[in-house]
Amino acid sequence: MNNTEKKMTFKDYAVVSSLLFGLFFGAGNLIFPLHLGQLAGHNWGPAALGFLVTGVLLPLLSVLAIAITRAKGVYDVGLPLGTGFALTFMVLIHATIGPLFGTPRTATVAYEVGLKPFLGAGNSWGLLLFSALFFGASFAFSYRENDILSNVGKVLNPLFLALLTLVFVVAFASPLGSTASAPVTVAYSNFSNALTNGFLEGYNTMDALAGLAFGVTVVTAIQQMGQKDPKSVSLVTAKSGFFSMGAVALIYLLLILLGAMSLGQFKLSPEGGTAFTQIVNAYAGPVGQAVLATLLTVTCLTTAVGLVAAFAQDFHNHFPKVSYHVWLFLSCLASFLTANFGLETIIAWSTPMLMFLYPLSMVLILLSVFSPLFKRDGVVYLTVVVCTVVPAFFDMIVAFPKVVSQSHVGLAVAGMRSYLPLASIGMSWAVPALVGLVVGLVLHFVRRSNLPELVED
């Protein structure tokens, strides 16, 4: 039997990079940076810098975390803290970016921004029918695991890029206004505020969480290309991640600029979907709206395919009595049901979960990337996560809708949280996490230095 691995060509790397790009770039990746540009106005620079940290650098690090630790998914990333934590963390991540919030959002954004303007605001059945067709297509595209690479990397993604390039060419050839004179909202009135709020806005993309969850899908696709050795799979993952996230960064910058320029003709929109609709209609009317509807449907479908497949693959791996196809069906069905609550409700309830899960994911990603320095010692993981989880939980309670945040419990939590550093900007977890890291590293190196003495005794 020939065990020689296939040598990866430039075309192979391009296909894997395209797969990663297609899986990452979905519903929020178009509307959130566009809205950020409108919020930041002429302060778009520091806002973009903050957004790129959580919207590009962190997802890239999540891919590298998978590569460096040779993990197959989000479960392996949490494993240094024990199987119980790893399983709980996996379920929370997949529930958040999957059937509860992330996957339903792909359908609602495509419908609300792309198709609904054609149907009218009074239409009551449009979302129901569209989401049924959308998740039916997601199920079909991801039914055969061997076809995910081909469907996303070779078919859907190039179509999306072609349509988005057309939008950028038209918009920058004839700009709606100047970024230098674009007005600024109060929250982005200076450099530090713009940087911080851009950083927090990047949470909404959910890409750092998705990067952990997509690990199993990406690893499976690379193995199907003839790479069997874990080291080779890790290297291909890392190289492809740099290419794909570089493309994402470029598109984010262009979208932020496009949002800032749009203020030359439009007022600040309530969200990025409305802004996108206004911009394309200003340039091309109904034809532009048709292009936008196609663009959003394609990009949201690529992400939905990756999300439902990753959910089914991970859950089948850990609960093998239920087949991949049954988990896939359950994911699509639950996403369809949640989608029909509407985009506004989904965003309102997803934000608190992101305030809780993003800090945990950030510290686990960074610990995974730098784990060779401390031998992936579980003690370091434990001290950092314990110091992160409580303030992150406080941030979550405060971010909930008023029914929770203004309750007696919510007000009590807000009072305790106010004593933590950086709580006013939604990052009360940062200083405790740093303290936990210092304590964990000290314990690690003290134990390591005492190990020879223990052995001699």
Note the main attributes of this structure:
2 domains; mainly alpha; 457 residues; Amino acid/polyamine transporter I; globular
Number of strands: 0
* Major beta sheet summary: none
Distance between the termini: 50 Å
Radius of gyration: 22 Å
Oligomer: single chain
User: Which homologous superfamily in CATH is the superfamily of the largest domain?
Assistant: Amino acid/polyamine transporter I
Class inferred from helices and paired strands = mainly alpha
Q: How many individual helices?
A: 19
CATH class of the largest domain: Mainly Alpha
Quickly give the CATH architecture of the largest domain.
Up-down Bundle
The portion of residues assigned to helices is over 70%
Taken as a percent bin, the fraction of beta residues is: under 5%
Low-confidence parts lasting 5 or more residues at pLDDT below 50?
none
Question: What's the overall average pLDDT, rounded?
Answer: 87
Instruction: Write the H/E string, N to C.
Output: HHHHHHHHHHHHHHHHHHH
The tally of structural domains comes to: 2
| CATH fold name of the largest domain | Amino acid/polyamine transporter I
Shape: globular
GO biological process, one term: L-leucine transport
Subcellular location: Cell membrane
Keywords: Amino-acid transport, Cell membrane, Membrane, Transmembrane, Transmembrane helix, Transport
Family: Belongs to the branched chain amino acid transporter family.
